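Hi there, hope your week has been kind to you so far. Please have a think about how the structure follows from the sequence. I've dropped the whole record in just underneath, so have a look:

_____
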Amino acid sequence: MRRKERAERFYEILEKEYPDAVCSLEYKTPLELLIATQLSAQCTDARVNIVTKDLFKKYPDAHAFANADLKELEQDIKPTGFYHNKAKNIIGCCRKILSDFGGEIPDNMEDMLSLAGVGRKTANLVLGDLFGLGGMVIDTHAKRILKRVGLTKETEPVKVEKDTENLLPRSKHSDFCHRLVLFGREYCSARVAKCEICPAKDICKNMSLR
């Protein structure tokens, strides 16, 4: 089976399995999605949602974050881990949003990557969910699953993204990656792959090698 055909079949399987899949981070505004995504690095979405419930009340907009006291913000986000860098980046990010982008979240990759604490994974997720312009969001779930299924042989996130971005239309990338997260948790975890009951076993390269 060619990679493109495998990707299309896999997309159909995930769409049927998780028809209502959306980003598991809770947010009400574009800025909240950006901040939550930054906080999710090396942290579960569930824990981020607990932290942001009060965080977004305390800091309701970019002005509030840009003018936050660094030490205080660090304590506010401490449960998400790596809070020194995250707090510094959030403040710097919001200051640049205000100074360079009129307080609005940029709608292109180049400008997104100019923001403190924003890499390609964060940029693709935000651009995809807000503007329908995102690419493949390569987190630990996606990297593991795409290789197991047989859609890439790459291991570095940027290389995985570039290797797989043309397998599906860009308009499908966000939904596909949100579904990969759910699929990874239910069937294809790092510790245990439930191959025998997996809905994608018929197209999975990992199964064909067994």
Summary: Residues 3-21+136-208 form a domain with the Endonuclease Iii, domain 2 fold (CATH 1.10.1670.10). The first helix runs from residue 3 to 17. DSSP finds twelve helices and no strands in the chain. The chain has two domains: 3-21+136-208, 30-131.
